[in-house]
Structures are given as structure tokens and as C-alpha cells.
Fold this sequence. Notes:
Elements: E1 5-6, H1 8-11, E2 15-16, E3 19-24, E4 27-30, H2 42-48, H3 54-60, H4 64-69, E5 74-78, H5 85-88, H6 94-108, H7 113-143
Parallel strand pairs: 1-5
Antiparallel strand pairs: 2-3, 3-4, 4-5
Bound molecules: protoporphyrin IX containing FE (HEM).
The site of protoporphyrin IX containing FE has 21 residues, from α2, α3 and α4.
Amino acid sequence: xxxxxxxxxxxxxxxxxxxxxxxxxxxxxxxxxxxxxxxxxxxxxxxxxxxxxxxxxxxxxxxxxxxxxxxxxxxxxxxxxxxxxxxxxxxxxxxxxxxxxxxxxxxxxxxxxxxxxxxxxxxxxxxxxxxxxxxxxxxxxxxx
Length: 144
Ligand code: HEM
């Protein structure tokens, strides 16, 4: 799908709390909905509004997870910016690996097959023994 292309002066028209855009690494981002969620607060984002905030973003040393979030808010690309191949790839982050690990653990956290077998047959065996006992004791009473 063709990306929408914006000039920096077009981006500069969106610099309020109600309409906040900026550019990071050639991506034009509409972060209006992210302002309240930003762990670094909304003020820093509003200060960068309408500008190229690449340096500000990098100086903070944002995590890989933060870098991957950029795609979520992208509305287009900056005119004249050519993306390198690596730019479009998702950055592998510890957080996503952790999620994969969690999913793996959950999948393998189930009861082993033999446990399900025991769970089914042990109550059956107990109930069977109980009825056998009842039958035999009653049979004994009848003989007396
Ligand atoms: C869409 C763009 C942005 C996203 C998705 C984003 C995301 C995040 C996230 C997830 C964090 C938590 C720490 C981390 O995971 O790195 C964070 C912290 C922070 N961000 Fe951003 N950020 C963005 C843009 C910016 C910009 C442009 C600035 C500065 C002008 C900024 C300044 C900060 C600061 C000061 C913190 C707190 C760092 C700390 O407490 O050590 N962020 N951001």
C-alpha cells in the first residue's frame, strides 16, 4: 500500500495537544492518542510536536518496545526520506521474546497425559472398591 507523503511544513500544522504529530526516522506519527499513555509524560511530546523529533527520541535511549510502537502511530512518511531495509523491520525486543516464552510456558504447563489417566481411574477404582466392599459385607450379613 502506498504511504502518504507529508512535508515538514504540513507536519508543523499539527502541534497542539488535540492534534499532535511529529517525525521520527522519516515516519510521520500522529501521537494524539498516545499523549496520555506516554510513560515520559505528554509535555515532552507536545514540545516536539510539529517537528522532526528523531534526535529527542534517540537521546532518551528508548527501548526496542518503544521503537516498535512507532509503527502503530505512523500516518505517513516524510517527503524525501528513503527507508533502509532495516527501518521497516520490527526490532526484536526482550519484551516480545518474553511474551513468546510465556506463551510457550502456558502451552506446556498442562497436566501430563498420565496425570489425566490417574485422575480418571483413581476415583473409579475407589468407587469400585467401595461398592465391592458394600456387596461383600451385605452378602456376609445374608449368610449369617
Ligand atoms: C511515538 C513516539 C514515542 C513513543 C512510542 C515513546 C515511547 C516511550 C516508552 C515506551 C517509554 C518507556 C521507556 C521505554 O520503554 O523506553 C518512554 C519513555 C520516555 N520518553 Fe518516549 N516515546 C516517544 C516519543 C518521545 C519523544 C519525542 C520524547 C522526547 C522529546 C520522549 C521522551 C521520553 C522520556 C523523557 C521518557 C522517560 C524516560 C525515563 O523515565 O527514563 N519520548 N517513551
